[in-house]
Design a protein that fits this description.
The complex is a heterodimer of chains A (about 260) and B (about 250). With about 260 residues, chain A is an alpha/beta fold. Chain A has 10 helices and 11 strands. In chain A, the strands form 3 sheets. Chain A has a 6-stranded mixed beta sheet with strand order 7-8-9-5-10-11, sandwiched between helices. A 3-stranded antiparallel beta sheet of chain A has the order 4-3-6, with helices on one face. Chain A starts with 7 loop residues before the first strand and ends with a helix. Chain B has about 250 residues and is mainly α. Helices cover about 75% and strands about 5% of the residues of chain B. A two-stranded antiparallel ribbon of chain B has the order 2-3. The radius of gyration of chain B is 19 Å and the shape is globular. Classes of the chains: A alpha/beta (about 260), B mainly alpha (about 250). At the A-B interface, β2, α2 and α3 of A face β1, α1 and α4 of B. β2 of chain A pairs antiparallel with β1 of chain B, so a sheet runs across the interface.
Chain lengths: ~260, ~250
């Protein structure tokens, strides 16, 4: 493992620094702790996500999922521990990370009066080599809504646009937080189909839906009260817990149930 | 092993964001009433009485008192009320947070919004000035260069004050409330509701240093062709500097 500081090579001609990203886990989280005013949000969390993997973070509300994602995205600073995304420190190498990380935040809001095409154009303009607008809209099946304002889209369409914007800069790592919460079953299927299209990206998927995690993820970390209780493939988790389904495995491993509202 | 060069968003991104902010403003039709309608209204209400009254250097009361006041009201409302409330709304709604995980810097949002609100101010002031010239025979400032310089400094002072409001306000509603209180307080001691000579001396003195009073005084002097008080300019520069300092330390993007 190469430390982030060693990856910066200041060019002798004084031009923009170049970062060399070594072959390594796409995301590396080591013994990370985070408290808010004395309340533990994340405690001693460690996991690795390999390049190209779809990795799930599954847990009930308040299990520390979103805090973990915010730490990885560099929106918060860990109290202790070490995080690397493609070898970059999310706080120190912020500018470099922003170029290779695409984030779809839980309930992120966009300029409500702008159209789908205008928002795609805006987010594409932030990156040096963006995906073509038509390809982005195709991927999330919004080509027919290019001239629709964000505020006039349905919840599912807004969510799909949000995914498209997260992918605008050809990120190497994509974070999708609560991808389908609040969507009807048909809209969820279309969103999932969009995620299944992703082949080259490493995906970190935050969810409290068993079905979603089972369908999309190669491996899953089960979160409970700020800690990781198990990391494995969905199938292995079921076997390990001696359960019949992932829902049963979750109950067996965390000692708690996901309430129906949370799973909705 | 791959190489990655850090490239900040270029001029095209700044332009795209500015165009997007402009579209947001134009599509919010109600929001255009104050910057564009209000200056004309204030002008028309005061123009006919003031236009005939000669004051100095061939300039009328309309030129020396009403136009500087109209200009100041527009700049203050945009800098101290509109900008902090938009920032608070963007922060609350998560738009700034969403942009924070892209290569776009928060400074881009701020700059784009300033450009767009200044454009509104120019249109509003321009329309009011056109009415003043063609309907009431208003004249340009005797010292046009000084007037433009003062206006530029005033813009910096108003945005500086606005950034203080945006930094201390915890919610969008409180941003509007604090902004309006600052607007009326600065205006009251700065001559928005008439001559400040009726005010107690210390209050009048402070009012002339605060951005509203300082701008009115300095623009008035530029229009009349008399010397601008150094204290006005110092007051404006201090507001701008203080605002930038407070915002740097206390402003939060999420």
């Amino acid at each position: 493992m190469v430390d982030g500081a060693d990856l910066w090579h200041r060019r002798p001609d004084g031009r923009a620094p170049t970062i060399v990203v070594m072959r390594q886990p796409a995301i590396h989280v080591e013994h990370v702790h985070k408290r808010y005013r004395g309340v533990v949000a994340v405690e001693d969390v460690s996991f690795q996500v390999e390049a190209g993997e779809v990795f799930g973070i599954l847990g009930a509300n308040g299990a520390g999922k979103t805090t973990t994602v915010e730490l990885i995205a560099g929106l918060r600073r860990p109290d202790r521990g070490r995080i690397r995304v493609l070898g970059l420190d999310p706080r120190r190498d912020r500018a470099a990370l922003r170029q290779v990380l695409g984030v779809q935040l839980q309930q992120s809001h966009l300029h409500h009066a702008l159209t789908v095409a205008e928002l795609v154009g805006l987010y594409r303009s932030f990156y040096p080599d963006p995906r073509p607008a038509a390809a982005l809209l195709d991927l999330v099946e919004l080509s027919g809504h290019a001239r629709t304002r964000f505020e006039k889209l349905s919840g599912g369409q807004q969510q799909r646009l949000s995914i498209a914007l997260a992918l605008a800069g050809r990120p190497r790592v994509v974070i999708l937080d609560e991808l389908t919460t609040g969507l009807d079953p048909r809209a969820r299927l279309r969103v999932w189909a969009g995620v299944e299209e992703l082949r080259d990206e490493t995906v970190l998927l935050v969810s409290h839906s068993m079905e979603e995690v089972e369908r999309l993820c190669d491996r899953v970390a089960l979160f409970d009260r700020g800690r990781i209780v198990a990391v494995d493939t969905p199938a292995e988790l079921v076997v390990r817990a001696g359960a019949a389904t992932l829902v049963e495995a979750f109950v067996a491993l965390t000692g708690r149930e996901l309430t129906p509202e949370e799973d909705a | 092993m791959t190489e990655l060069t850090v490239r900040r968003p270029g001029p095209r991104a700044w332009l795209t964001l500015t165009v997007c902010e402009a579209k947001m403003v134009v599509r919010d039709t109600a929001g255009l009433v104050v910057p564009i309608g209000l200056p004309i209204l204030i002008m028309v209400m005061n123009a006919s009485a003031a236009a005939g009254e000669q004051v100095v250097n061939g300039r009328s009361a309309l030129d020396v008192y009403v136009l500087p006041l109209v200009l100041t009201i527009v700049l203050t409302s945009i800098g101290v009320v509109n900008m902090p409330s938009f920032l608070a709304y963007y922060r609350r709604s998560g738009i700034l947070r969403r942009l924070a995980v892209t290569p776009a810097s928060p400074a881009m949002v701020l700059a784009a919004q300033m450009v767009v609100s200044l454009a509104q101010a120019v249109i509003g002031i321009g329309a009011a000035y056109a009415v003043a010239v063609f309907a009431y025979g208003a004249l340009p400032p005797v010292d046009l260069g000084v007037a433009l310089g003062v206006a530029g400094l005033a813009v910096a002072a108003m945005y500086g004050t606005g950034m203080i409001v945006a930094s201390v306000a915890p919610t969008p509603n409180s941003a509007v409330a604090i902004g309006l209180i600052a607007f009326f307080a600065f205006g009251a001691v700065g001559g928005m509701f008439g001559d400040t000579s009726a005010l107690p001396d210390p209050l009048r003195q402070v009012g002339s240093w605060l951005p509203f009073g300082a701008t009115v005084d300095a623009l008035s002097a530029a229009w009349a062709g008399t010397a601008v008080d150094t204290s006005s300019l110092v007051g404006l520069a201090l507001s701008a500097t203080l605002g930038a300092g407070v915002a740097t330390v206390f402003f939060r993007w999420d």
